[in-house]
Automatic annotation (TrEMBL):
It comes from Lujinxingia litoralis. This is Uncharacterized protein. Keywords: Signal, TPR repeat. TPR repeats lie at residues 107-140, 141-174, 178-211, 632-665, 701-734. Residues 1-43 form the signal peptide. Residues 1309-1341 are annotated as: Disordered. It comes from the Bacteria. It holds the Pfam family TPR_16. The keyword Signal applies.
Length: 1341
């Protein structure tokens, strides 16, 4: 009866594996019957011949058992175990097909055949068998259950649910009913039908009401789907069930607390934890965990202060664990003295505890108490005498502090204590070498050499020491001892060859490899090493021969493929590949040389000739001259060729053949088939292959993840989530799977669940890259939703783990950087209340982040140190001052300039000394940064003297020292600045005037001799420094200085002094509130590149120059009070002067608004103040013009004054330009009056009228009245008239002028053409029809 059976070599995985897989459309074990068929991932079926009678009887016996009861999963699994998953299963299926054909009415035979087809992944055929089984046995629960299972696997959930419910109605066995109900509940939950799922599970519980494990499974399912209230009800029931079992009650209370915490009910969570703690002995390990969880809850709710108020005093008197928890919270909240006291108390309780002693050291480092660190390290070394690393840390500390003798003493002590440990001595020798103690290093190396002369690690370290010192021969002689080391002769020769090749001694390395090969000709690793060495030596022919030898002797396809690829590459490098391909082609065609065929195919693939390579491989696969191994190799290469050519369907066919030849690899091959099907847009086929893959390896987390990935690419997020969850449960340490699960949950819209999973990855993962990926996802989401503070509360404990992971430090730095930005903006640019709140927020954040920043600033990663320094500065972390001072003093510190820039912000007197030393550095970037930073420091005598001396030495474009000195003010700054101004007045060109005058403004002096010198310079039209002097006068805002500016301005009208204009603009942009030091540092530190550690001095000086130019205010808000008073004093009671100034300001307004000539001086605010200050006697036109500037006269008022001849034509036009237009006025009268001016015989009056019209709203005049006169001006020979006319036509919305504008444009000069184009564009936008009528050529112009 048994034709050809096969048996698997490996045992079946037993247990409730299907529970871990979960309910999903492609899970093999969703239901109890299906359970999943055992995975034989490494099985190799072998034939059972008629001579193996025992095996034959076993298979026949299991066949009988399965046929008698197809519902008994155990028997089916055993049968499959014995026949295997390859040809044995195929033959078994063929056998039962014949049985079914012979007995078409047999229910059990149909069920057995359906089970076997399902096990092979043939779901369609399996479904057909189960359909027939349902017809044959409509009252058989097993038939309905089996059909439901395969429907579930095919994604037909509704049909599966119907079948399972029918099976439940028919099933009488209590245990089987329970299993069906449980799985029905899980399926309902998966479909988000929670009410129905809960009902199913309650019926499941009713079958075995005393089974607490069933209730806990139910509670877990409820928690998974966030059904909090029902989950709490189950835990209440569990608490009633356990009665007086205190351990179990405590366990359930702790789990219930987690539910409350998830619901955000922290008070109830804490209460539940306290109840659980009260049930256990204080020394129970669970008590410590629960207390730590209590701290976490307070932390997540941002109430660590409340925790300290409630528990700090009591827990501080408790046990070691309680003291450590409170100490950690003190450290986290920046209360370092309290933390230090508790860590010391905890260390006193446990003389061998390392953690409190390590944290004491960290706190000393944060507090800058370097003098206390040696004693703390000594205490730690006594607590852990077996750990030499603490001694090395102490030695490194002494070296950082410049205490070389003490560092040497510690290393010698370690030598004595660990004198018999070769590896410790090697580390000590390495430290000697790094610290330029070459004699001590060599002596220690020699000592290790005597201690363990045959240890390969010792030999390699000693040789590396010699080689690094340039003693090549000694290094070679040492490496030559490797064959006699513990490695053994041949491995030693190979290691010697490898090391010599790596060090560029290729000939020696090749010789070592050849010697090893002569002694072990069958060692493939030696052969590979030799071939690689010959390649590196560029001995191409010998390398090809060596790789050929590897190919001929290789017993693994992977090794043959490597050799093939290297040989082909060697031919390509020598430009001989095409020639050799012809040889291989002839050998394949004439002699059927299989080896030549493989090389030819490899060459085509290397040259990206995928189709031609595929043709060769297809020929090999179909050849009768290849054995099974060669056929597998050819198919593997053919798969690669098809995939590279994007022929995915062909690749799937190849993999199907490989499954037949290598059934033990079916899981992996099916996964690849699924991937290719998805690339070919065959989602249904991809799912089918994935299911088959999962059937082969149901307990393989990677197989589950592959299925999840397919669903993810198909956008079926619910299925992806289920499979990722199953994968994560199978392998809890595979954090990449948890990361994928978190992403899938977010994509599905289950944000809180997804973020929780990502948090677990951040907290528990061991790979930094994975932590960073998960953390950055959480960061981005928190920033978008404004939850950075919540994230900080959860992440901050990561900074107190020992050791702190680099990835955690990076994430927290990113978090603090994102929190700082908005606060800085409000602190420097907000209103008073915003500034106060933001400043307080920055202080609080600085206190919370101080511990982490002080840790990171000592890390080995320069970029992270730079980022930490920036945050230390922006958050004003005063605790960092000692560390910053040490970094500035360390000439080898990579972030020394960054530390100097941060010191400028901290402005602590303790930093003055290190900065003065740095200011004398030979390194320009260090010296310049230090000179700049000294300007922010508290004034000290030595500091001022140094800056004064440096300022006197500056020449040319320099100005850093002068600017820093000026910020301190005082007589030193006054002397140097006065000398510079005098030199500029004498015409000495050696100084940068902008920097001198900027320093004068920075010094803050308003009156004095400098003002008189500035006035003289400003009035000297021939001086190149007149403008800079005037700007300085304006910025200083002294009464005499601003008055001098106005005097010079008025005196030079009608063409005012440019210098006086610039000075007045500077005065009007300046305000009363000076920039504080924080804002000044924030602005100027932009010239520092934190990533590169470079201060751009040119950019810094240019920024100061721009501030003086008036592009940006040096002092802040607009305030014209001082300016108006000075102008009033200048004009006095002279009405003519009042009128002259008003006319010029009106002209400036016209230039600024119509011609875009720049901002006008003063504006309406100044005019309003001047009207209020106007003395009696200033009447008539002067008073009217100022009132027009202030907006007190409207256009109708101005027109009335013109008619009364109180204003002349020019005054009226200028006043109309700035006056507001009332809702009712003499529109016709104004229009005719303007037309008369356009027809004037005076060209200047016509031009002024056109310019005023161009700036007026079109609706305030009658366009029809004015257009003819304006159009006539287009024929003017004066370009200015044509330009102004074009603007006026645009203001009048004269669409009918478009043809005329187009006509003029072709022949117009460039400036006129631009004005005509702008007018046409304005009119075209107002009239789409006119645009459509334009010709393409015109439009293109």
């Amino acid at each position: 009866m048994v034709e050809l059976w096969k048996q698997g070599k490996t045992g079946m995985k037993s247990g409730w594996w299907w529970k871990r897989v979960g309910m999903c459309a492609v899970t093999a074990g969703a239901l109890a019957l299906s359970g999943g068929l055992p995975s034989l991932a490494q099985a190799q079926d072998f034939e059972v011949t008629s001579g193996d009678e025992r095996q034959q009887r076993i298979v026949e016996r299991y066949m009988e058992l399965v046929e008698s009861n197809p519902a008994e999963e155990r028997h089916l699994q055993s049968l499959l175990f014995h026949v295997g998953r390859g040809q044995g299963l195929n033959h078994l299926i063929d056998h039962y097909r014949r049985r079914v054909e012979a007995r078409p009415e047999s229910l059990n035979l149909h069920l057995v055949l359906g089970h076997l087809l399902r096990a092979r992944g043939d779901f369609e055929d399996a479904l057909a068998m189960y359909e027939r089984a349902v017809e044959l046995g409509p009252q058989a629960s097993n038939a309905w259950l089996s059909r439901g299972q395969v429907r579930l696997m095919m994604g037909q959930r509704d049909g599966a649910l119907t079948d399972f419910e029918r099976a439940l109605e028919l099933e009488k066995n209590r245990q089987r009913r329970g299993e069906i109900l449980q799985n029905l509940a899980e399926l309902s939950f998966a479909q988000r039908d929670f009410e129905r799922g809960i009902e199913f599970y309650k019926r499941r519980i009713a079958l075995t009401p005393g089974d607490e494990y069933v209730r806990r499974d139910f509670a877990s399912l409820l928690l998974q789907y966030r059904q909090w209230e029902e989950a709490l009800a189950q835990y209440d029931a569990l608490l009633r069930m356990v009665g007086g079992n205190t351990a179990r009650r405590a366990e359930f209370l702790s789990e219930r607390a987690e539910i409350f915490a998830s619901m955000g009910q922290n008070d109830r969570a804490l209460e539940s934890l306290q109840q659980a703690i009260g049930l256990l002995r204080s020394d129970n390990w669970r008590v410590g965990e629960m207390r730590a969880r209590m701290v976490d809850i307070y932390r997540q709710s941002g109430e660590l202060g409340t925790f300290l108020e409630r528990y700090a005093r009591r827990w501080s008197k408790g046990g070691y664990d309680q003291q450590m928890l409170v100490a950690d919270v003190y450290a986290e909240t920046g209360q370092l003295d309290e933390a230090l006291a508790l860590y010391r108390r905890a260390a006193g309780r446990n003389r061998r505890a390392e953690e409190p002693r390590q944290k004491i050291i960290r706190i000393y480092e944060r507090m800058g108490r370097e003098q206390d660190l040696p004693a703390a390290y000594r205490d730690l070394m006594r607590a852990a005498p077996q750990r030499h690393g603490y001694g090395l840390e102490l030695a490194r500390h002494h070296m950082r502090m410049g205490q070389r003798d003490k560092a040497l003493s510690v290393l010698r002590e370690l030598e004595r204590r660990f004198g018999e440990d070769s590896y410790v001595l090697l580390e000590i020798a390495d430290h000697y070498g790094r610290w330029d103690m070459s004699d001590r290093a060599e002596a220690t190396f020699e000592r290790v050499n005597r201690l363990d002369p045959d240890d390969d690690v010792v030999i390699l370290a000693l040789a590396e020491h010699y080689f690094g010192r340039g003693e090549r021969q000694r290094a070679v002689d040492t490496w030559r001892r490797l064959p006699d080391s513990r490695l053994g002769r041949v491995p030693g020769l190979a290691r010697m060859g490898e090391v010599m090749v790596d060090r560029g001694l290729t000939d020696m390395g090749v010789s070592a490899y050849r010697q090893a090969l002569s002694e072990a000709p069958e060692d493939m690793n030696v052969r590979r090493g030799l071939a690689n060495a010959l390649e590196r030596a560029r001995r191409w022919d010998e390398a090809a021969e060596a790789w050929n030898s590897v190919y001929e002797r290789a017993d693994r396809e992977q090794l043959r493929q490597e050799a093939r690829g290297r040989i082909v590459e060697l031919y390509r490098r020598q430009q001989k590949l095409r020639e050799q391909m012809n040889t291989w082609t002839r050998a394949l065609e004439d002699q059927g040389d299989v080896r030549a065929g493989f090389f030819l195919a490899e060459a085509h693939l290397r040259l990206r000739e995928f189709d031609r390579g595929a043709e060769v491989l297809e020929q090999l696969v179909g050849s009768s001259g290849v054995n099974d191994d060669e056929k597998v190799s050819a198919l593997t290469l053919l798969e690669r060729a098809y995939v590279q050519a994007e022929r995915y369907d062909d690749a799937i066919v190849v993999l199907e053949q490989l499954v037949e030849l290598r059934p033990q690899l079916a899981g992996e091959l099916l996964a690849r088939m699924s991937e290719y099907a998805l690339r070919a847009s065959g989602e249904a086929q991809a799912v089918d292959f994935a299911v088959r893959s999962l059937e082969v390896n149901p307990d393989d987390a990677r197989a589950q993840a592959r299925v999840a990935g397919i669903y993810e690419q198909a956008g079926e997020w619910e299925e992806a989530v289920r499979h990722y969850r199953a994968a994560a449960e199978i392998d809890p340490q595979a954090f990449d799977l948890r990361l994928a699960l978190g992403r899938a949950l977010l994509a599905q819209g289950r944000e809180s669940e997804g973020e929780e999973v990502l948090w677990e990855v951040v907290r528990d993962a061991t790979e930094d890259q994975m932590i960073l990926e998960a953390g950055e996802l959480l960061l981005n989401r928190a920033q978008r939703s404004g939850r950075l503070a919540v994230l900080e509360a959860r992440w901050s404990p990561l900074a107190f783990r020992l050791p702190v992971r680099d990835a955690h430090g990076r994430l927290l730095l990113q978090l603090y950087s994102r929190m700082v930005g908005p606060l800085l903006v409000e602190a420097h640019h907000g209103d008073v209340e915003q500034r106060q709140l933001a400043s307080a927020g920055l202080r609080d954040l600085g206190g919370r982040s101080a511990s982490l920043l002080l840790d990171v600033v000592q890390s080995a990663d320069v970029s992270q140190r730079a980022r930490a320094l920036r945050l230390i500065a922006e958050l004003e972390v005063d605790l960092a001052v000692p560390m910053i001072a040490r970094m500035i003093a360390d000439r080898k510190e990579a972030t020394r300039v960054g530390a100097i820039v941060a010191a400028a912000r901290l402005a602590d007197a303790r930093l003055v000394g290190p900065l003065l030393d740095a200011a004398s550095s030979a390194e320009p970037k260090v010296r310049q940064a230090a000179v700049w930073a000294l300007g922010f420091m508290p004034a000290q005598r030595d500091l001022l003297r140094t800056l004064e001396a440096m300022a006197r030495e500056e020449s040319g474009g320099g100005g850093l020292a002068l600017g820093s000195l000026a910020r301190h003010g005082g007589k030193e700054a006054q002397r140097v600045i006065g000398e510079r101004i005098e030199a500029l007045a004498q015409g000495e060109p050696s100084y940068d005037a902008a920097q001198v005058f900027s320093a004068l403004v920075e010094s803050g002096r308003g009156e004095g001799e400098e003002s008189a010198a500035l006035v003289n310079l400003m009035k000297d039209a021939s001086s190149p420094h007149a403008v800079w002097a005037a700007r300085a006068l304006g910025r200083r805002r002294s009464a005499s200085g601003v008055s001098a500016l106005w005097e010079h301005y008025v005196a030079t009208l009608p063409v005012p002094s440019y210098a006086a204009e610039e000075g007045l603009r500077a005065a009007m942009r300046a305000g009363d509130r000076e920039r504080d030091r924080a804002t000044l540092w924030q602005d100027e530190s932009r010239a520092f590149d934190w990533r590169r550690g470079e201060l751009n001095v040119g950019a810094l000086l240019a920024a100061r120059k721009m501030q003086l130019e008036g592009g940006a205010s040096l002092l802040g808000v607009l305030d014209n009070g001082i300016v108006a008073e000075a102008l009033g004093r200048t004009l006095g009671r002279d009405a003519a002067r009042w009128q002259k100034v008003a006319m010029h300001m009106l002209e400036e307004e016209l230039d600024a608004d119509v011609d875009g000539a720049g901002a006008a001086i003063g504006g309406r605010e100044l005019a309003t103040q001047m009207v209020a200050k106007m003395p009696p006697g200033v009447e008539g036109a002067a008073a009217s013009l100022w009132r027009a500037l202030a907006g007190d006269l409207n256009a109708q008022d101005v027109f009335g004054l013109a008619q009364e001849e109180q204003l002349d034509e020019v005054q009226t036009l200028l006043a109309l330009r700035v006056a507001p237009w009332p809702s009712e006025f003499d529109r016709q009268g104004v229009s005719h009056w303007l037309r008369a001016r356009l027809e004037s015989e005076h060209a200047e009056l016509r031009l002024l009228t056109l310019r005023v019209l161009a700036g007026l709203p079109g609706e305030v005049v009658q366009a029809d009245v004015l257009k003819p006169a304006v159009l006539s001006q287009l024929d003017s020979a004066q370009s200015a008239h044509v330009i102004a006319a074009a603007g006026a036509l645009a203001a009048l919305n004269a669409v009918d002028a478009l043809p005329r504008l187009r006509e003029l444009e072709a022949e117009a000069p460039p400036a006129v053409r631009r004005a005509l184009q702008e007018a046409r564009q304005s009119l075209g936008a107002a009239s789409p029809k006119s645009v459509e009528e334009e010709t393409p050529n015109t439009r293109g112009s």
